[in-house]
Amino acid sequence: MTQQTYAPRPAAAPSVVPAGEHRALTRRSRTPRPRTLLIAAIAWFLAAVFLVPYAEMIITALRPAHELRDATYFPSEFEWANFVDVWRESHLGDNLRVTLLVAAGSTLLVLLVAVPAAYYTARMRFRGRKLFLLLVLVTQMFQPTSLLVGLYREFYQLGMLNSVWTLILCNAAFNLAFAIWILTAYFSAIPEALEEAAMIDGLGRGGALLRITLPLAMPGVVTAMIFTFIAAWNEFVMGLTLSTVPESQPLTVGINSFIGNYTVQWNYLFAGSVIAIVPVVILFALIERKVVSGLTAGSVK
After folding, report:
1. Dist. CA 191–CA 122, nearest whole Å
2. How many Cβ atoms from other residues are within 10 Å of residue 277's Cβ?
3. For the segment 100-117, what is each residue's pLDDT rounded down to a tens digit?
4. Is residue 10 predicted with pLDDT exceeding 70?
């Protein structure tokens, strides 16, 4: 039998792309597609539509008083003293302090009540669970305006008008239902096996909640927190009704004082509005990622 020998095939020489063709391919890959350009143009247009009112607000806040009725878009000079005057000549500092206390206190109270309520509702199959969730949802149908007369009479008899605690309790009550609903959904999505494993290792029910479940549900907690904070920050009707002393009014009511019966101090009104949105913008910048993840959680499986 003749033994055949096979010689190994020579390795194929690597393909070499000329330098000019490589640069052309790189340039072609970097060139955006028409669809990408169209989407970017639409995004920039929408951003401009939403940012133009804020730009107008800042420009009006810096406009001198004698140029408020001018048709020009930009004033001849920027009056930076408007911010100093609105801070000194009004109770805006006190109003800002009251709003910060009310928003922070309402948010803290809502989380202290909503977290255990939502956790118990998500984990325990007690009798009347669906009825409880339905009642929580029904409370969202009541508008604060329809309850103002009863709230005013109640807090008047308790001697709690013009109190920060009154506004904290009211804002927390009207935002509690939303927090319970969203946190119940987050707690229900977390497997109970994680808590059972933690309890086998020695943790109790409270320890499993604080160390295991709550960190996993943090996007939902942050979402409930930011929505409660914004709702309490922007609240106007209850602040106008339950606080009559200028020093105890929230910021939204204090800014409204620049609107008179016959004239409107537009420069001071917009200067106060700029001051009012700065803390909210800072808060959103700090926790924007958590809010986005909380709103989009569960949308992709």
Report:
1. 11
2. 12
3. 999 999 999 999 999 988
4. no
Q: Which of 103-117, 223-237, 282-296 has the lowest mean pLDDT?
A: 282-296
Rounded CA-CA distance 209/115 in Å is 10
- pLDDT, mean over the chain: 80
List the alpha helices (DSSP H) in 158-265.
Answer: 164-189, 192-200, 205-208, 214-216, 218-234, 237-242, 251-256
> CA distances (Å), 41 to each of 29, 35, 38, 45, in order?
20, 10, 5, 6
What DSSP letter does each residue of 49-97 carry, written as one string?
A: HHHHHHHHHHHHHTS-GGGTT-S-SS-SS--THHHHHHHHSSSHHHHHH
pLDDT digits (tens, 9 = 90+) for 128-148: 777 877 777 777 777 777 888
Burial class (CB in 10 A: 0-12, 13-18, 19+), 33: exposed
Mean pLDDT check: name the lowest of 23-27, 97-101, 154-158, 160-164. 23-27
Cβ neighbours for 102, distance < 8 A, ≥ 6 positions apart: 164, 167, 168, 171, 232, 235, 239, 250
DSSP for residue 158: T
Q: Is 259 helix (H, G, I), strand (E, B) or coil?
A: strand
Per-position DSSP letters for 104-124, written without gaps between them:
HHHHHHHHHHHHHHHHHHHH-
| Main-chain phi, psi angles of 245, to 5 degrees | -85, 130
Model's pTM, two decimal places? 0.75
Residues paired with residue 264 on neighbouring β-strands, in sequence order: 259
Question: What is the biggest distance separating any 2 CA atoms in the chain, rounded to whole angstroms?
Answer: 118
Question: Domains in the chain, please, with CATH?
Answer: 91-263+276-296 (1.10.3720.10)
